[in-house]
């Protein structure tokens, strides 16, 4: 048999054995190194340059034609896999780009990335000390420090890492309900009266969604009016509480927000806490977005009174720029998570193990298998220190103020809020065709069409990514969100220039 035939046969034999789920140097080392090189060069560094596109727009049919998305019966080669990796990266949104300011997450933090890679290489599931000894201890230390930063004495209480802020807010509802009605664990919703909870009309949708999921019902998640700054109206809250009581319902919690999704508003926590004490309600603070400001001596005043809360949601993957996903639920009451959720499965949480089983913390979660989301955040914290996080937060707020002050001086920009509290800056861009037409009867209708047109142009050109939305009686406006501390004042001018370039000559 010719030598090249021998190589073909050997190659086919290796290919046939690739189904085995175990790294083998002879089969995988070259592929892994090439794949990591591709990630480092093309994704981590190549796509973080300001000269790169934020997104290479392609219609669904085009992506389907470029990337073979269907699973196949037989294996493909390593070269083909690497080519697929390159195409997946090419057509994915470049969330690590400095000009991705579209949602409440961004950037690829180098230390967070390495922590994420280490997590995936170790592939742990954090439910018992025996299978995740380092991560079990790491979670307890990080969560204790976060509770101390919130303001709870000595960091006392409890906490867990969750798959996102929505689930964290769901844990708050579950813990509050169990705190007041522990029979719900065994007897279900039949054991409790008609429960109602309260949240701001501008709060994250997850509170209402989780009320549905837990059998409380969306009608029983009562929304409270907000003022012109987006803050919860405390007088309306008390009116709604008393109305619910008079109607025979049983109020049990209030979810306040520290950094609303759109306006970035911080609810007045101290007077809300006063009402919760008066009516014996659980106070939860959704600080998923704004919680990062607690790391800054200059800006933590925005969350004044958060230490009065019974529980807090805080997402490091938002304002602190940890990689997705990294969400925490912190609770002042030490045992409510365990008492409300544990099932004592004997095949996992045996009490006669040879070590202290109080470190088997997984039973207080509703999940069983669970990622070690703590590692990337802990690794970042080690690399930067609390001082580094403080500098990061202060720079975000400085950039936001600079951008706000800059567009106040430029024609075509009209602010939604003159003095936003967080790093969300909201504005309309008014093209030339609408300037001076503010009193026309169809002005609002025409202005509503501007943001989608600008968004289409920016996405198809890939120059930046900024979201827009309507809110209440406000027509579509842009919301630019700053959470990437690699940005500077020159970038703030770039954003303004780019809106002008994309939008000034639009006709609606």
Automatic annotation (TrEMBL):
Its cofactor is pyridoxal 5'-phosphate. It holds the Pfam family Pyridoxal_deC. InterPro entries: PyrdxlP-dep_de-COase, PyrdxlP-dep_Trfase, PyrdxlP-dep_Trfase_major. The keyword Zinc does not apply. The modification N6-(pyridoxal phosphate)lysine is found at residue 318. The keyword Lyase applies. Homodimer. One of its GO terms (cellular component) is cytoplasm. GO terms for biological process: carboxylic acid metabolic process. This is Cysteine sulfinic acid decarboxylase. It comes from Papilio machaon. Transmembrane segments: none annotated. Keywords: Decarboxylase, Lyase, Pyridoxal phosphate. One of its GO terms (molecular function) is pyridoxal phosphate binding. Belongs to the group II decarboxylase family.
